[in-house]
Structure formats: C-alpha cells, structure tokens
Amino acid sequence: MAILLVLLTACGTIGLLPTSQLVQKAIALQLEQTQKQLNQKLDLDFQGWEIKHLSITQEQPLSVENLPAFRVRGTYDLIIKLPERQLTQLQQQFEIYLQIQREGKSWRLLLPDKNSKTTPAVWRSYLIL
C-alpha cells in the first residue's frame, strides 16, 4: 500500500508542471529581489524591466522539505528600463526552484539562503502571485 501511495503522489506531481507564465512571474520576483539590493547599494533608478522570449529547457522534479518542487532551467531576453535609455540583455540563462504547496493551488519561488552554512541548504520562500 505504501508503494502505491508513493506512485500516486509521484504521478500527481508530474501532472502539475510549472507553466511558462509561472516561470516568468518567478523570474520577475527574483529580479525584484535583486533590484532592491542594487538600488540600496548603487542608488540606481530602475524604471522596470520586461522579460521576453522565455524558453524552458529543463524541468527536473525534486523534493524540498517534503514538498514537491522543480528545478527549472532555460533562457530569456531581458529589457531593463532606465530613466533615459533601456538596456537589452539577450539569452540570459536562469535556474530557479519552484515548489507547489500542499493544496496544489499556489506556487512559491525558492531561493537558497546564501548566509546559511548548513547542509542541507536553508531555503527562503516567496509566494508567486
């Protein structure tokens, strides 16, 4: 019975793969976190950004803190908007970790805590809206 339960859980997890729209929102959330840090350190005036041409090349299922998660890899083009110009960065590679919550209705972006020296890694979690 335990084996059957594990198989059913695994099949259910595979059916809930992250979508391109979800991945784009997660990347935007991660960029927002980075932008806040840069604004504080460099006093830059970001006007925003735009993510285009998102391409997912790998979705690897895994488990983080006993909940199903995915390591998602791929590329995207990033347009950074500044007050007097915009910068375009093509083919930016990304690797993000996404976790679906128990009820299966919401996803979270997982970021490893860089200040933590523990193994296994400590994760910071952000709700993707």
Describe this protein's structure.
By secondary structure, the protein is an alpha+beta fold. Helix content is 28%, strand content 45%. The chain is built from 2 helices and 5 strands. The protein has helices spanning 2-14, 20-42, and strands spanning 48-64, 67-81, 86-100, 107-112, 123-127. The chain has a 5-stranded antiparallel β-sheet with strand order 1-2-3-4-5. The radius of gyration is 17 Å and the shape is globular. The chain starts with a helix and ends with a strand. The model is unreliable at 1-14 (pLDDT under 50).
Report a brief summary of the structure.
With 129 residues, the chain is an alpha+beta fold. The chain has helices spanning 2-14, 20-42; strands at residues 48-64, 67-81, 86-100, 107-112, 123-127.
Strand and helix layout:
Layout: H1 2-14, H2 20-42, E1 48-64, E2 67-81, E3 86-100, E4 107-112, E5 123-127
Antiparallel strand pairs: 1-2, 2-3, 3-4, 4-5
Features:
129 residues; alpha+beta; five-stranded antiparallel β-sheet; 2 helices; 5 strands; 28% helix; globular; disordered N terminus
Give me the count of strands: 5
What is the 3D form? globular
Task: Supply the helix-strand structural class.
Answer: alpha+beta
The biggest sheet amounts to: 5 strands, antiparallel
* Helix proportion range: 25-40%
Spans of at least 5 consecutive residues whose pLDDT stays below 50 are 1-14
